[in-house]
């Protein structure tokens, strides 16, 4: 630090920085070296911020990365990632994930070269495994493998959200583990196909936050469909899918994933699944003891994905805390949660809503 910034000004002269980059003895990833050179070329004041250099070298998400990317896209001349040869099975998968998720070639090369197995993408995998295990346990206990929401024994679970049990706060989260057969297959497939690659690129913290925000958005049900229960992890799944699909559409020209049109078909399938949920809500195939589960969890999850999720996916290697739009979204979400909590406490009695007795 003393050699680069002897006067302790917090800035490094470009000449010193360029000499360091050209004569360094450290084994840097090629893409990280590109970012360092781009950071130099993007500077117009003859000096580089020492803190930005530290953040870039330590792979922290920072605004310096955005600036380096913007310049690097015009000046870097390296071959594109698809031309890399001699890759092992895992590195080929990492390259596939990079092209599936990221819209910029420099972003893709950066992710490809700095990707490590630690920490692994465990959140989505663990959630999916627990959902399958819960389904199998209830199948064994009830001796029914085609579980349906109009079966009273299924709806008696302490995991299901029911308005009559809304004082049991854990049900606003635990409902995501309860599924009927076709719902489990649909959600598990989407979680593994979309959620795991997203977690590999954006990290466990951001993707788990997005997923759980989609799940917690089920509080919308207690406002808009006050008599309906909720089951299934569709809120979290739709938060992931809507964020990813919106990111693909907004960066259509830059995306190099081979199945962009397939994703649009996936969006139509998701829409049809919402239609099926609406149909089951108001026209169950068999008589039931009360209202069927609400479809509002799907829609509220999609809203979370398009707002909070899209900002997360567009902020690869950038600090969310430094973005004003992030705090606007967080403030809006917290405001919604507080309103929903007060609504659950007071609105049912004030409005005289007749809640069907729990199974």
From TrEMBL:
Q: Which residues form a coiled coil?
A: none
One GO MF term attached to the UniProt entry: serine-type endopeptidase activity
Where can this protein be found?
Membrane
Q: What is its main location?
A: membrane
Where does the source fall among the domains of life? Eukaryota
Pfam families tied to this protein: Rhomboid (PF01694)
User: What is annotated as the active site?
Assistant: 234 (nucleophile), 298
- Tell me the membrane topology, using the record's own terms: Multi-pass membrane protein
Name the Gene3D superfamilies on file. Answer: EF-hand (1.10.238.10), Rhomboid-like (1.20.1540.10)
Q: Does the keyword Transmembrane belong to this entry?
A: yes
Looking at the record, the residues that make up the Peptidase S54 rhomboid domain are: 167-314
| Free-text function comment from the UniProt entry | May be involved in regulated intramembrane proteolysis and the subsequent release of functional polypeptides from their membrane anchors.
- Which family, according to the similarity comment? Belongs to the peptidase S54 family.
Q: What is this protein called?
A: Rhomboid-related protein 1
Q: Which organism is it from?
A: Fundulus heteroclitus
């Amino acid at each position: 630090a003393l050699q680069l910034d002897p006067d302790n000004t917090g800035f490094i002269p470009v000449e010193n920085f360029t000499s360091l980059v050209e004569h360094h003895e450290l084994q840097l990833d090629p893409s990280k070296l590109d970012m360092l050179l781009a950071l130099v070329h993007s500077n117009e004041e003859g000096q580089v911020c020492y803190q930005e250099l530290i953040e870039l070298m330590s792979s922290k998400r920072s605004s310096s990365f955005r600036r380096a990317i913007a310049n690097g896209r015009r000046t870097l001349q390296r071959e594109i990632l698809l031309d890399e040869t001699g890759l092992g099975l895992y590195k080929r998968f990492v390259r596939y994930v990079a092209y599936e998720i990221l819209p910029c070639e420099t972003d893709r090369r950066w992710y490809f070269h700095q990707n490590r197995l630690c920490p692994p993408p465990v959140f989505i995998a663990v959630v999916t495994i627990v959902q399958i295990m819960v389904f199998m346990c209830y199948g064994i206990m009830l001796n029914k493998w085609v579980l349906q929401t109009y079966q009273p024994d299924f709806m008696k679970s302490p995991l299901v959200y029911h308005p009559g049990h809304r004082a049991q706060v854990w049900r606003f989260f635990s409902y995501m583990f309860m599924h009927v057969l076709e719902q489990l297959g649909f959600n598990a497939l989407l979680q593994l196909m979309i959620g795991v690659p997203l977690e590999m690129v954006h990290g466990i913290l951001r993707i788990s936050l997005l997923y759980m925000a989609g799940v917690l958005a089920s509080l919308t049900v207690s406002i808009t469909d006050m008599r309906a229960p909720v089951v299934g992890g569709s809120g979290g799944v739709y938060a992931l899918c809507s964020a990813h699909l919106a990111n693909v559409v907004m960066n259509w020209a830059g995306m190099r994933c081979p199945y962009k049109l397939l994703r649009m078909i996936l969006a139509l399938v998701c829409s049809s699944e919402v239609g099926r949920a609406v149909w089951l809500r108001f026209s169950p195939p068999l008589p039931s003891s009360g209202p069927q589960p609400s479809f509002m969890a799907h829609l509220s999850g999609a809203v979370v994905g398009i707002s909070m999720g899209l900002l997360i996916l567009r902020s690869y290697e950038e600090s969310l805390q430094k973005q004003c739009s992030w705090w606007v979204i967080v403030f809006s979400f917290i405001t919604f949660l507080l309103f929903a909590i007060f609504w659950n406490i007071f609105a049912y009695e004030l409005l005289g809503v007749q809640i069907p007795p729990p199974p």
